[in-house]
Amino acid sequence: MSFVPGQPVTAVVERVEIQKLRQGENLILGFSIGGGIDQDPGQNPFSEDKSDKGIYVTRISPKGPADLAGLKMGDKIMQVNGWDMTMVTHDQARKKLTKKREDVVRLLVTRKSLEEAVKHSKCSYPKH
Amino acid sequence: MEDYDVRSAASILASVKEQEARFEQLTRALEEERRNVNLQLERANLPPNPPTSQPLPWQQVVMQEQSPSNATSLAMMQEPQEVVEETVTIEEDPGTPTSHVSVVTSDDGTTRRTETKGISANVKVTKMVKTVTTRTVRQVPLGPDGLPLPEGTSPLGSYTDSIDRRYLKNGSDRFITPQATSTLTRSYNNSYNDSYGETPESQYIRHYGLHDGYTDLTDNYGSLSRGVNYRPPRYPYMPNSYRPENSYTLPIRKDDYGHVAQPQVPMGSSTVDLNHSQPERFQPEPYGLEDDRRSLGPEEEEPYELEPDYSTANRRTLPGANRGRTHREPLRDGPRVRGYPDDPIEAELIDERHPYIHGMYSAPLAQPERGSMASLDRMGGRRSPSIDSIRKDPRWRDPDLPEVIAMLGHPIDPVKSNAAAYLQHLCYENDKIKKDVRQLKGIPVLVGLLDHPKSEVHRKACGALRNISYGKDNDNKVAIKNCDGIPALIRLLRKTNDMEVRELITGTLWNLSSYEPLKMVIINHGLQTLTNEVIIPHSGWEHEPNEDSKPRDAEWTTVFKNTSGCLRNVSSDGAEARRRLRECEGLVDALLHALQSAVGKKDMDNKSVENCVCIMRNLSYHVHKEVPGAEKYQDPSALQAPGSAGPQRKKKDDAGCFGGKKAKEEWFNQGRKNGENDKSYDTLDLPKRTEPSKGFELLYQPEVVRLYLSLLTESQNYNTLEAAAGALQNLSAGQWTWSSYIRATVRKEKGLPILVELLRSDSDKVVRAVAIALRNLSIDRRNKDLIGSYAMRDLVSNLPSGQQRPAKNLEEDTVVAILNTIHEIVTDSSENARSLIQAQAIEKLVAINRTSQSARETKAASHVLQTVWSYKELRNALAKDGWNKSHFQLTVTATPKATKNGKPGYDDTTLPLMEKNQDGYSTIDQRDKDCKYKTGDGSVDLTEREPLKMFTFSIARHSDNERSVRNDTNRKHYIRSNRPAVSLVDACDVKPQPVDSWV
């Protein structure tokens, strides 16, 4: 899933709603994220386009809240509670996901299988 | 050459002999004609100003032709002019004395353009002129020796006369053989068609200036041909190779060359010319007939020209064909060349062709030129069929980067400009290539080209620099700066009037301005120039307005947008930058004028307005401290009051948006103490001004309040809204006289409801800016009361409530800002505290205090709670709602410093706010906000195709400054500036990040 910043992006997204789980002091979601505009996109094992600096789900703890909600490893997180996640730093994403006052996070994610399901047309910009 | 070989010597001999015989006849006739013509010319010269009008109807022209004297005189007149076309007509005329001539012209007219039957000779001429640009002529001046002079002035003027005469003679020669001429002309017409639109006469036109001949070629071929021409060393060899083939295969070509060559003929007396011209024709014979034909022109060529192949082939194509052959047999040609030396003209001719032919194939240097051609082609520049065919040739390839960069230093201008354009194209959206260009030291060369006199060259160089300057790689920006690119850009801005170039310059500067260390450099070199050259003229502001005329409106040009964006960026570079901008003559005036014009036209959503407001906001920051003479306006009550300030509060002296808490406190207390202050608020007596304020004084005149309020009311652009609110916030901060006027003026202008309304904005940053502005405004006691009564609900509704999802997702900063504003409002006002309770805020505050993960939010909420609890008269009411003291105490985590003496810790509350304010307002672009802001609507359904709109991020910096040559669209792609600085959130976020984190 790649896009050109500044251009509208057409993506097939799925909404995933995760109920946070209280673990002692913390509310956890049960997955980990990688990526962000401050990270080296080349190291992202999940992105198709190695220049994609989006936030990706890197690990899922089994039976955790994210797992139960249907989040998958390798999903690209597009939004968290309405906040865009395609152009944020890693830490900004983390913060958005871990707001203490929110028990529920709603994610918009996209993944390859979704993409393939729907032929989409994002060829409007030249590939560089 | 093979052809040549194939021909048997015998046949050649035979043909040569035949030709010779013919020539002799012709020459005799020619000689006569020449004499005639010369006489006529002489006569013609005498009349100073013959009929001048160029657009002569056809008949008139004919008439002139018949009366040679007129025609010639005309010609004379026009010659001096650079316009080649006119001369051409003239030339025809002299030739025309014979009846054929007129026929010829008519033929041409009809054949070429059927629609225009009565085309005058002039018309044709003009067509031709198009192909021949005078400019080019100058570009490729030839020395007397026939060698191009790199940058010299064109010899045109000097030799025009003689050349003309020569032509005339030539023309006459042609015409001497009547049959030949008529046929010839027709053939010409056919062959050249519209594309060339050139009859033999037109070709003459070219000859007229040698350069013209060149220009044609060069234009068509792009830089290649020119480049070749310029290599002196090759010349000697060229002629040889060239000739043989030409003679046999491509007659037309000869013409071209012949023509070209002719102009070169050194200026001399007419007799000299005669000599030259004769030898030209005749000498070639032994070697090949071609040369003769070309000089003689039409007659002999007829057969060839009539052939369809030739007709399609323009001159341009011909040369290509020549090259192919030529390069095969270099050796042979060599010897022949030597044979020529005695004939200067021949040598010249050879030289000219030679380079041309040569360059394409055999010269090692040819590659770069090819490159340039290729780039030309790709860019969709003019394309002649020949170029296309050249491109198809497998030998052509794209130049690699070092070659392109090398071409930037090519002696020939079009090569430079094509190389630069190609570079711009390559760099588009390609960070790797930008980096490579930098490492290959291409940037200094491009910067050097900015000073190039040719607009084509500096324009393309600037375009390349703009693309290179764009993007995350600050090293590129630094590289431009390091080779003095910024002063060079500014210089060019001063020099050029070309809008496109100006757009490119300002776009480049905008890009450069996004990098912190370059801001001051831009200010130092370009501030006044940018202001004078762009901001002031485009803003419509006039230093001394003409009273009769209506004030001009601002023009939202790209240049203005770019420049204002650049200044917006540099205005965030701290106190010194602000000072420089404020004191830049005319800048503030022009910006204000532009904004007022925007308000007047209700055109407030565009980027230029946004930029202007942001500059104004930035310049308003700390205005009460930084403006010269600010001391005079320090509020006397504030200064005298220090001792009387509420002793219960310990304040640290803290420089912040309030200009030091102490001062603020003073203000505050004073307002509280002296209820009579209220009166003065409503009857403002502003400091008396002896003369209208100007320059930076305009920043804080109460008049600006209305402007900002209009923007806040009308604009749909969140960035503009945020900036306008921020400007009010900056102006209402501080304890000097002007800020108190501003605070009162906002109220009087009914600005409070406008601001409160904006608390409902969907935009986080707007809410934040408005909240902080309200906080500063509430330093004014009456404002505080009003805000307490009318804004409380909206403030509270922006607070998150524990479990329930808040209506909006607001940033931590925004939440803290709102909490601090609430705190300010309820402080010293139990009435306001009561309305806070009535707004159901306690529940939210308690929830934040207990559960917020943000320490700052927790702390800010607890301060509000403590303040509320401090009003004993309210405790009953609170108790009734089920609250007790424990709810109003600090939570364990937040305990640290809060309440030492049981009073709300003023310092703590304000601290974070101030920090934020400073950064937030001193710098414009808070990218964080921007990027958050871009989120479209959050709710999307499962597996729908969902267009996520990403284009909202309009950071002042780069935005759409990079353009490729090819697709000249305004795409914004990189949204994010690389630059580290200023964003509020970034400050905390920019620590080294884990690659992977559990959530």
Q: What's this model, at a glance?
A:
Chain A has 128 residues and is α+β, with helices and mostly antiparallel strands. Chain A has helices at 65-69, 90-97, 112-117, and strands at 9-19, 21-23, 26-28, 31-35, 55-60, 76-80, 83-84, 104-110. At the A-B interface, strand 1, strand 4, strand 7, helix 2 and strand 8 of A face helix 52, helix 56, strand 1, helix 57 and strand 2 of B.
Radius of gyration of chain A: 14 Å
Largest sheet of chain A: 6 strands, antiparallel
User: What portion of residues of chain A is helical?
Assistant: 10-25%
Main sheet summary of chain B: none
Measured by residues with Cβ under 8 Å of the partner chain's Cβ, the largest interface is: A-B, 59 and 56 residues
Structural shape of chain B: elongated
Report the sheet-strand fraction of chain A: 25-35%
What's the total number of strands of chain A?
8
Task: Give the number of helices of chain B.
Answer: 57
Radius of gyration of chain B: 40 Å
- Identify low-pLDDT runs of chain B: 48-390, 638-682, 893-994
N-to-C CA distance of chain A: 15 Å
User: Care to count the β-strands of chain B?
Assistant: 2
Average of pLDDT of chain A? 82
Question: From the helix content, strand content and strand pairing of chain A, which structural class follows?
Answer: alpha+beta
Q: What multimeric state do the chains show?
A: heterodimer
Q: How many helix segments of chain A? A: 3
Helix content of chain B: 55-70%
In percent, how much strand structure appears in the residues of chain B?
A: under 5%
Averaged pLDDT of chain B: 62
Order of helices and strands of chain A: EEEEEHEEHEH
Protein name (chain B): Armadillo repeat protein deleted in velo-cardio-facial syndrome isoform X1
Organism (chain B): Pundamilia nyererei
Keywords (chain B): Cell adhesion, Cell junction, Coiled coil, Cytoplasm, Nucleus, Repeat
Pfam family, one (chain B): Arm
